[in-house]
Design goal:
With about 130 residues, the protein is mainly β. The protein is about 0% helix and about 30% strand. It has a five-stranded antiparallel β-sheet with strand order 1-4-3-2-5, with no helix packed on it. A hairpin with a 3-residue loop joins strand 3 and strand 4.
Length: about 130
């Protein structure tokens, strides 16, 4: 586990949730007008993003300080000082229900025989 302590945070992004992936990129001065077109890799160096791990807890402390607890199992072992920290939403393309559910009740009030042809849903909630 890594604990990232962020100070002077007056407005934490409301989309940040437990389960999101945390990334870091070392800051530095880039000369010229070239874009590095960096690809996110595990444990990469300046200019490219590194996956730190999965967010497991958010602690709001006194004095506009926030602690992000990150599970870094299999990812970068540390975060360099003065790094840019960003996040992405957790993957939901697999279709597993994680924390949300829906319940439906179908009722037929007719005395005639009836059959349901199909029932489907494609709901994905990214954040609240």
């Amino acid at each position: 586990m890594i604990v990232l302590t962020l100070s002077n945070i007056t407005n934490l992004n409301v989309s940040l949730q437990i389960g999101d992936l945390i990334y870091t990129s070392k800051t530095g001065v880039q000369t010229g007008a070239e874009d590095l077109q960096a690809v996110v890799t595990i444990g990469s160096s300046i200019g490219a993003g590194s996956i730190v791990g999965t967010l497991v807890d958010i602690n709001m402390l006194a004095g506009a300080t926030v602690e992000l607890v990150v599970d870094n199992s299999g990812y970068a072992s540390s975060v360099p000082a003065n790094s840019f920290i960003m996040f992405s939403k957790y993957n939901q393309f697999v279709g597993d229900v994680m924390g949300y559910y829906a319940q439906a009740k179908f009722t037929n009030n007719s005395r005639e025989k009836a059959e349901i042809f199909s029932v489907g849903s494609e709901v994905i909630i990214n954040s609240k």
